Amino acid sequence: MSQFQNVIVKAPAKSYVNGLTTSDLGTPDYDKVVEQHNAYVEALKTCGVEVTALPADEQYPDSVFVEDPAVLTKEFAVIANPGADSRNGEKEAIEEALKNFYDKFHRIEAPGYLDGGDVLQADNRFYIGLSERTNEEGARQLKEILEKEGYGADILPLKEFFHLKTGIAYLGNNNMVVAGEFIGHPAFADYNQIVIGKEDEYSANCIRVNDHVIIPAGYPETKRKIEEAGYQTVELEMSEIRKQDGGLSCLSLRF
Predict the structure, then answer these.
(1) Phi-psi category of residue 184: left, alpha or beta, with phi > 0 → left and psi -120 to 50 → alpha
(2) Does the N-terminal or the C-terminal CB of the chain have fewer CB atoms within 10 Å?
(3) Which residues are bridge partners to 153 per DSSP?
């Protein structure tokens, strides 16, 4: 995996506590959200990246999840078309921020819609999940963009997970963290699979940032397996992020 140099994050808005969620974990505590987000930003900095922090936007309760409005490669940015109406406008601020880093942009156009949380890059191949937030037309447009640019792309219908990256993470060196419906999935047969059991499923959403893998706190088995695969881990408390269906990958754009 190539080294990341930059990361974009966005401060959580006070309206975050009223954001979209399918979880039944209660209303987030805003002060704790801020605390957990700050710890996340500090952890990223220790991984050797330059962090660009965008200001909170009260109009968009879910806008702290900056991963969804864009898909990034080294060479170009794809501005996504988020599937939830209340989130679609988030892409404008993200595109504005990305103009400082990219000259080349592609776009997912309606009737296609797509969330970045449904897109996983593993070296030169991308996996695109079909979910409630990413439809076939959006996935097809992204596949076409990626293939024109020289990447491989596979489209996978999701059966259980909210987003593709809810249950899978690529750590480089051909190592793939898999949970739930991705365990034994033919699309990932050629990877060394780090299998996460049902009770630890949330921890499958982890991120490798240069020499570290950031994982949610409280999953000793996941920590052990990732460290046995040769990675250093950083654990972060994610309780308030999880309440709004969020995971570690959702909170940043890494490039």
Answers:
(1) left
(2) N
(3) 126
CA distances from residue 162 to 130, 154, 195, 244 in whole angstroms, order as listed? 10, 18, 19, 12
Query: What is the C-alpha to C-alpha distance for residues 95 and 7, in angstroms, rounded to an integer?
Result: 14
pTM of the model: 0.97
- Cis ω for the linkage preceding 111 (within 30 of 0): yes
Q: Using an 8 Å Cβ cutoff, are 119 and 94 in contact?
A: no
Pure H helices in 133-197: 136-148
Name 144's Cβ contacts closer than 8 Å, sequence gap at least 6. none
pLDDT, tens digit (0-9, with 9 covering 90-100), for 210-225 = 999 999 999 999 999 9
Decide if pLDDT at 2 tops 80.
no
Catalytic site positions: 163, 250
Task: Please say if the pLDDT value at position 71 is more than 80.
Answer: yes
Whether residue 32 contacts residue 240, with contact meaning beta carbons closer than 8 Å, is answered with yes
pLDDT-derived band of residue 24, with 50, 70 and 90 as boundaries?
Answer: confident
The token pair at 175 is: 């190592």
Q: Rounded distance, CA 223 to CA 177, Å?
A: 12
How does DSSP assign 93-162, residue by residue?
Answer: HHHHHHTTT-S-EEE--TT--B-GGGEEEETTEEEEEE-SSS-HHHHHHHHHHHHHTT-EEEEEE-SS-S
Sheet with 168-170, strands from edge to edge, namely: 168-170, 175-179, 192-196
Nearest of 55, 114, 106, 64 to residue 84 by alpha carbon: 114
